[in-house]
Amino acid sequence: MITPEFVDTNVLLYAYDAGAGERHDQARRLVSGFGSTRRGALSVQVLQEFYVNAVRKMAVPASPEAALGRLKLFSTWTVHSPTAADVIAAAALSQEHLLSFWDAMIVRSASQLGCSVLWTEDLKHGQVIDGVRVSNPFA
User: Is the N or C terminus of the chain more exposed, i.e. has fewer CB atoms within 10 Å?
Assistant: First the structure.
């Protein structure tokens, strides 16, 4: 059985933002590897954040059609759809580990999917939270 690895929004955005320089190259290699190995995992939150930021905040914003196409691609990965219980657990994680609520939701989703790794630049590299190891692909 393949152990999934969770990819946060910022990594996905860098993978498609040609203006992101070296981070673009690193993120693109990582993301393309997940597509071919079926190890990639994310959450509904990541899908939402990706779309909004891809069409508004990238150096060269994606067209809504292009962003939608990428959403369709990412939706073939393992996707966590949080429940009310996940929101409550994330709030507790937020307090326990001094995380923003949104970062705690990402960690909760990764944990619920059984991910070994959470790829993000938003948390401390090497930190283990709720059984998930944080890895910064740009560190």
Answer: N
Q: Report the predicted TM-score, pTM, of the whole model to 2 decimal places.
A: 0.95
Enclosing H/E stretch for 38: none
Domain boundaries, the chain: 5-135
Distance CA 34, CA 36 (A): 5
Rounded to the nearest 5 degrees, what angle is found at the Cα of 27, between the Cα atoms of 24 and 2? Answer: 165
Q: What is the mean pLDDT of residues 71-97?
A: 97
> What is the Cα–Cα distance from 10 to 26, expressed in whole angstroms?
12
The percent of residues in the chain predicted with pLDDT above 90, rounded, is 88
User: Angle between the 9-16 and 22-37 helix axes, to the nearest 10 degrees?
Assistant: 110
- Closest CA relative to residue 61, chosen from 94, 102, 13: 13
Rounded to whole angstroms, the Cα distance separating 71 from 90 reads 24
The listed range with the strongest mean pLDDT (19-28, 31-40, 58-67, 94-103) is 94-103
